[in-house]
Amino acid sequence: MTHHASDIPDSFLAKWQTTTNVLAGIFDVPAGLIMRVLPGQIEVLVSSHSEGNPYEADEKAQLNTGLYCETVMATRALLHVPHALEDTHWEHNPDVALNMVSYLGVPLLWPDKEVFGTICVLDSKKRNYQDKYVELLWEIKKSIERDFVVIEQQRQLLENNAELQAALQRLTALQDELLRSEKLAALGAVVAGISHELNTPIGNSLLAASTLQCHAADFAVDMKQGLTRSRMLDFVSTVEQGAGILMRSLDQAAKLVGSFKQVVDDQSAADRRRFDLGEMVRSVLSELNHTIQGSGHRVHCAIAPGILLDSYPQQLAQVMTHLVSNAVQHAFLPGVAGTVRIAAQPDSEGQVVLTVRDDGLGIPQANLGRVFDPFFTTRLGRGGSGLGLHIVYKLVTAALHGSVEASSEPGQGACFTVVLPLSAPAPLQKPEVRAVRNGNFV
Ligand SMILES: Nc1ncnc2c1ncn2[C@@H]1O[C@H](COP(=O)(O)OP(=O)(O)OP(=O)(O)O)[C@@H](O)[C@H]1O
Ligand SMILES: [Mg+2]
């Protein structure tokens, strides 16, 4: 099939219908036709709505049967047959059977100069046309060929568009793949970091435990020979030291494991209650007092009393703990005493806007979009697991039904904005599953 033989838009077919109607009228013939060549066949693409017209649109005829149009297409030239029965060459052509004995037709060429078909007029009686009619037929042919150019351009546009769409799809797929491999690389780095982190407390615990074991064995031997008071005091202090190291190391390991657990833990709805936001935040700060005091930074809570929430205080307390510890841990250079301000403002839509803002180094633009990703940390191998803000994201979106955003203007420190409904909707079923999917990772 030639490439132009595919569909012609309806709007052009309608226009050409009018053209052939007018053509038949002016030439005063029963049939004005636009013919289209198909493989091995020729079809009536448009046929004039005129009296006595024996041709119908969509009708097909076999090629190589001596049709007038075949000659026009082969010679690419005008053909005029005034009366077929007066011409031995034409007296047996198939149109004579329809009583179409007179023919005037010209070829129609596609923009690539391939033959599309013909435009022609047929009559049941002898016809000799004046030159101006022949000229008119050429003009109509040219106008239809200009339409072909437009059709071809439209087709090209559609094709280009399809190519663009395909390219876009490929890009999106590539982007997904990149994201996945980036996350996998992040996971690899985190597994290495976590192993490293766990290695220290576990190694210390082992060392402390085996030292204790040795001391206990020595003590047992000494016991058989009788013990002095100073030997006993010595042993007790050794046990105390060893146990202290064990406790601290195991506590460190447990915290690390705990932060992993928080990521995948179910947040039960059991502890939903009514509470005062300011009171809750202040109690979190007093729990963090040790860390805050040790850091030398100041944390201000400017939340007015009386903002009442019907929500999940434990989850919100975890969120505040992560945000405040992050500020204290990440925002300031050593030796700089910084300030962290916590504020809250209820809005008119039944929500409260909670902000934790520091005046520290801020977060580089390139990292802003990644801080909530699981395992994103700038302190890998130095105590950071990169799970803190991911847990915040999960808690805020899934358990508390709110939203959280990080912002940072150069030189202005970082600000975390949490928007929460004053009354959290009751969880449908496991909302955390949704958050895990949102997190795209764990
Ligand atoms: N207030 C802040 N100022 C500057 N950077 C911050 C601040 N809060 C978070 N960040 C950046 O965001 C990163 C991710 O924080 P996140 O709490 O998720 O992990 P982390 O604190 O590094 O590790 P973890 O909380 O698991 O111990 C941090 O490593 C830090 O680079
Ligand atoms: Mg953190």
Give an account of the 3D structure.
With 442 residues, the protein is an alpha+beta fold. The protein has three domains: 3-129, 2-Layer Sandwich (Beta-Lactamase); 173-264, Helix Hairpins, CATH 1.10.287; 269-439, Heat Shock Protein 90. Helix content is 49%, strand content 18%. A six-stranded antiparallel sheet has the order 3-2-1-6-5-4, sandwiched between helices. A five-stranded mixed sheet has the order 8-10-11-13-12, with helices on one face. Strands 7-9 form a two-stranded antiparallel ribbon. The longest helix is centred in the middle third of the chain and has 94 residues, at 131-224. The chain is elongated. Residues 430-442 have low confidence and may be disordered. Bound molecules: adenosine-5'-triphosphate and magnesium ion. Residues 322, 326, 388 line the site of magnesium ion (MG).
Structural topology:
Blueprint: H1 10-27, E1 31-38, E2 41-47, E3 60-62, H2 68-75, E4 79-81, E5 102-109, E6 115-123, H3 131-224, H4 229-264, E7 273-276, H5 277-287, H6 289-295, E8 298-301, E9 308-311, H7 313-330, E10 339-346, E11 351-358, H8 365-368, H9 388-399, E12 403-408, E13 414-421, H10 431-439
Parallel strand pairs: 8-10
Antiparallel strand pairs: 1-2, 1-6, 2-3, 4-5, 5-6, 7-9, 10-11, 11-13, 12-13
Bound molecules: adenosine-5'-triphosphate and magnesium ion (MG).
Describe the structure concisely.
The protein is built from 10 helices and 13 strands.
CATH topology of the largest domain: Heat Shock Protein 90
Q: Helices and strands: which structural class?
A: alpha+beta
Superfamily at the CATH H level of the largest domain?
A: Histidine kinase-like ATPase, C-terminal domain
By CATH, the architecture of the largest domain is named 2-Layer Sandwich
Percent in strands: 15-25%
Q: How are the strands of the largest sheet arranged?
A: 3-2-1-6-5-4
Whole-number radius of gyration? 44 Å
Small molecules held by this entry: adenosine-5'-triphosphate, magnesium ion
Strands, count: 13
Per DSSP, the total helix count is: 10
Largest β-sheet summary? 6 strands, antiparallel
* Topology as a string of helices (H) and strands (E): HEEEHEEEHHEHHEEHEEHHEEH
In the predicted model, the low-confidence regions spanning at least 5 consecutive residues are 430-442
Overall structural domain count: 3
